[in-house]
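User:
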Amino acid sequence: MARFGGHAPLDSAAVRRARAAAASVPAAARVLTGPSVRCTGTAAALGLEAVVAPELADCDWGRWEGHRLADLAAAEPEAIAAWLADPDAAPHGGESVAALGSRIRGWLDGLDGLDGPEAGGPVLAVVEAAVVRTAVVQGLGLPAQAFWRIDVAPLTLTELTGRAGRWNLRCGRTL
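Assistant: Predicted structure:
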């Protein structure tokens, strides 16, 4: 069930799945994680020594944090409709999809040139699905509305290779 936010710890089944996937995680020069309990727990279960990167935090869902999308759609249909139609809308009082996009675009732009051999290799980030969707939208220069059309399964690898202004996408490889 889709829920806004990742502050719940991993359950034992999720930890087992992450540990089983650990051998298929690609090598990286730098390993980052979003600050949520789910991200840091996943990185640990994967056996990664990750540095928490606050700029890779999940979207600030405001008062929707922890609630299921289906419940909010029933309780606040106009607010959900506004959020789904307008990337600048933030009826939950938190961060809009457009604001999340700006934050992640800044992070991607800061990576320019950091994944080449002169910089020591690729960066691996364990992040929430909304951050992955946003990175794909921003990296490929898609319209912000594409955010809602991208599904990200748990424990999958989405790769953006290249540099700012010229990112390439390889998505959905199961770990």
